[in-house]
Design brief:
alpha+beta
Length: 237
């Protein structure tokens, strides 16, 4: 069984793209299993070893010639009437968004009990530093070093200029989003996704609470190039 394999694993080698790592990130973080990613996808920020370099990479790995890089994860909860309905961990991002063809969604953002913004937009992306090069980047968010400890909040097609910019919050922030109704209209087609995989419907009055997770993902690094060098190479494809 997969759980038995992971319980007895010292390392995990993932062949695929970043999405394949995302699928196993929480389980590996919980068990403190370092992950080596071999890129069979397109860009692959986390799966830094290309297939042509796989044999040399495995040789270095078996000789313990590598470093382990820790990446922040976040824990998100969906609450209805102060009761937790769903709880997930995410390595890349949590996205609150409308369903295609529906109207804009309305959200109130607060952190540590202080109101920050009200959003009228297609959605809002809450990303970790690792996720800053994913959907958040496509929506106009900033790129941050993946070993940083912070949140990047980026709206998707915000209706007003005052809420169209990204916000960066420290990793000890307690983020709270409340889904609102507009003009008494109860919108039923809004969703929260976690690392583009798990999708949960939300309704006006529901809360999404996000904070930094205690567990971190451990990625094996064989390449001594800096993140910015890797970034330039990946994005120039």
């Amino acid at each position: 069984a997969e759980n038995e394999i992971l319980d007895n694993a010292e390392y995990l080698i993932v062949l695929g793209g970043d999405g394949t790592i995302l699928q196993r990130a929480a389980e590996c973080a919980k068990r403190k299993i370092p992950v080596l990613g071999i890129n069979l996808g397109k860009i692959g920020f986390m799966t830094e070893i290309e297939i042509d370099d796989m044999e040399d990479a495995i040789s270095k790995f078996l000789q313990d010639d590598f470093t382990v890089e820790k990446r922040m994860m976040m824990k998100a909860e969906i609450r209805k009437e102060n009761k937790i309905q769903f709880s997930f961990h995410a390595l890349n991002d949590v996205v609150v968004s409308k369903v295609a063809g529906e109207k804009l969604i309305y959200m109130e953002l607060s952190t540590d009990g202080v109101a920050v913004n009200r959003y009228t937009a297609d959605g809002l992306i809450i990303a970790t530093p690792t996720g800053s090069t994913a959907y958040s980047l496509s929506a106009g968010g900033p790129i941050v070093l993946p070993t940083s400890n912070l949140f990047v909040l980026t709206p998707i097609c915000a209706q007003t200029l005052t809420t169209a910019r990204s916000i960066v919050l420290p990793d000890n922030a307690y983020i709270r989003l409340i889904v609102e109704a507009k003009d008494g209209i109860r919108m039923l087609h809004q969703a929260v996704s976690f690392d583009s995989d798990n999708v949960v419907s939300v309704h006006p009055g529901d809360e999404i609470v996000i904070k930094s997770a205690s567990d971190k993902v451990r990625l094996i690094r064989l390449d001594q190039r800096s993140f910015l060098d890797t970034l330039g190479k990946k994005l120039s494809r």
